[in-house]
């Protein structure tokens, strides 16, 4: 231990850069002596490994080690060169006051039975460790309602000489396994005296669920101490156990109030196993804390319903539960406003903000503090709603105008507050005025009274009066009145109109405007009548006979009549006489005066309106007009609901201008309305509510010169043109083969609905009922249209038409407003006789011409036509090409054609071929018109093909003579198939036989010597099978089918023959049997060849 001490001392000393080299040598010598002494002392059991610590920086506690084999004696410890006395002790440690920061020599004299030994140590503050004393006394308490641990302890700061920083480390453990719940650190400062420190921690598991343990240690960081600094030892464990489990208190925590989003742990402490746990409607798996406790952990709890969220643990025999309430702390009150209505009470209102989710005893509580007076008002709990407005009433303090209010909101989760400073005299919003009363002064002025509760003696009030008249609109008047202690106020209201129904209402504020009060109820009041302010607007019209004049006047408006008009007084006079009429009742707005227009006298006519208050000023007009002969009727179209007129300025017009109008379709006198304009005007827009679109009006412009009127212009006009409402009525006056004449009538003015611009006439060729008239359009190629812009034209002739043809006609009128409906008609033109004759003659001429041309062509091509369509068929009776045996044709007159006469020689092809067939005297082939050459399948080579002239010999009776030479022989005709002559090579006998039998075509009859060899080769049966030309020996074997018939061509019958056996050129039977037993032709079809077979033989 001493070696370690001196090595540290050496390292620290060497680390001091201010140490001189001589001191380093001196220290090295000491270390060497120490090592020698240590070795010598250990051999004798002297102290070694001196170790010093301090708990309070005032006392050093040093100890050493000695060999256990040596009996302990007495130790004397001295500090060399120090005023501290030496210490004798039998223990191996001692305490000395803290030495200064320097090296000190410590001498320890060990006195033993075996002898004495002395050892010296060098001790410095750097070799001393600061180890605070273990904290033994601290207080641990718990708040089970919040699951919070509270720790309180004394830092013993008075034992330390100076200020020092302290770090405290606290560990909390729980459960039976002593699991660490939290590790916390706390920084404090020693101030030279004892201080009490506090620390608290809230457990996530209710304290009732399982025991909690706490221990603490600390570390002092003394800046002026250069030795080692170490943590103190851990304090003894202190534990907190839950209260004894009572009936109905098995689940913790009880009725907890937590913020939304909290994480909570609920535990159940029971003596029986828990089967399930449920939070709200959801089940959770539980955590076992110890033998009697289980818990569930809920994260991010949402807002609870008003009755809270239930937590239930289920055991085999019972249910255990609790309730949790989750919500929000109160929002800072928003829009806090304090004002007064009567300067007696102050009303403070605010917006509660977000609902907390708590109700009843857990709801938000509000307290309003006034700091200057120290008074407060509490707001009772109420059900909360989003952005709900709350208010408190604070009684005003006499003489105080400035108020400083603080509104505090609190609930189980927290508190908030809002502050407002107000001068209450500038925040006056009076109550709603009431009890409005109006009293007459005259027809244009009244007094208006109302009641306003409150004490406003110290301020002025600004009141706004809303005036609504029936016909003059709305008016607002602001009036300042002196505030009163009483509640009755009145104002003077003038500049009103007589006999007018008014509606009044009032609202007030302070002169230093803050807010208006609500409007009072409306007060309706009718002012008294006054004298009419002006005379009626008058006009006059002469009758057509000129014997009387009618005076018209317009009723006065309400603001002109100033009351109810009772009657009108009409009078007229001239220079010679004056005449008055009786009063005209208000319902009648015209009067007729008997005057003669031809009379040169000019009368002045006057009209006066009367009500209960008096008579109006007179309105005057003269009876005579200034003539004007130069008047032309003009046309005009309005804009919108009016018509704009223009005229030139005339300085001679001294009175005014009058525009009169009437509906032109009505009977005389034409008067609907009139309107006057100043004399200096040059135009006017006449608008009239009764103007109707599509209605024609007559307008007359008058000018006034010296109180006499002159007609200036006469105008026909429409406010808006429309399309005609009816179609023109037209008729067909005349028709011809190429034209139609139509005539139409004018459309009545009331149906025209605009100025006529023209007519559209459509016509289309077609059958009756095949064309929709309304569908005719000028854009179609088959529709023709004529635009008639001359509105005076009433007839139209349509030319260039076709005779005896139907036409669809349509006539439409159009105005500036559009095209009106059309009237349609169907007309057929008359027949054109010349065209009919031409139509007949042209086809006849064409037919004759075609017949002549065809005849000429047929005559010139007659030979070709005959050969092509009607070829000659030779008579078999005239043919001598073959001669048959007499026995064949005996007894039958129908077979005389077999007696063949000499014929004209034919061209014969002689083909040289090699064949094993019986040799014929001459290899010949008779070329008939039907056979043009060898078959397509023939392989005969060209060099063996020779064409010669040939004439068949006349067959004599050599056959009979030859037959006499040999008794058993007879003469036969052999039919040789021409095709067999074209075979490229010899065939075996059987092939030749089959070939001969299956051959087809024409075969000449040749005379051959009848020998036994031939008889062996060709028998009579084989002759029947031969398909070539053969005598008609067996009529029943004839096949009458057409050669074109599939039966005759495709048949495999052995008796099938191709063509007549008695013909050279023909391919059909020419001499069919006539008896009934002969077979009938089975050919049911018809062929082009059969058509020519009925031709008689040449």
Automatic annotation (TrEMBL):
Domain of life where this protein originates: Eukaryota
Membrane-traversing stretches: 836-859
PROSITE patterns per record: FN3
Membrane topology classification: Single-pass type I membrane protein
Location of the region described as Disordered in the Swiss-Prot/TrEMBL record: 921-942, 1039-1098
Compartmental location: Cell membrane
Main location: membrane
Keywords tagged on the record: Cell membrane, Disulfide bond, Glycoprotein, Membrane, Phosphoprotein, Receptor, Repeat, Signal, Transmembrane, Transmembrane helix
Gene Ontology cellular component list: external side of plasma membrane; receptor complex
Compositional bias per record (Polar residues), positions renumbered to this chain: 1048-1068, 1080-1098
One GO-annotated biological process of the protein: positive regulation of cell population proliferation
InterPro entries for this protein: FN3_dom, FN3_sf, Ig-like_fold, LIF-R-like_Ig-like, LIFR_D2, LIFR_N, Type-I_Cytokine_Rcpt
Signal peptide coordinates: none
The Fibronectin type-III domain, residue ranges: 332-431, 432-530, 535-629
GO molecular function: ciliary neurotrophic factor receptor binding; cytokine binding; growth factor binding; leukemia inhibitory factor receptor activity; oncostatin-M receptor activity
PANTHER family: CYTOKINE RECEPTOR, LEUKEMIA INHIBITORY FACTOR RECEPTOR
Subunit relationships: Heterodimer composed of LIFR and IL6ST. The heterodimer formed by LIFR and IL6ST interacts with the complex formed by CNTF and CNTFR.
Family under the similarity heading: Belongs to the type I cytokine receptor family. Type 2 subfamily.
Function in brief: Signal-transducing molecule. May have a common pathway with IL6ST. The soluble form inhibits the biological activity of LIF by blocking its binding to receptors on target cells.
Name assigned to this protein: Leukemia inhibitory factor receptor
Lineage per the UniProt record: Eukaryota, Metazoa, Chordata, Craniata, Vertebrata
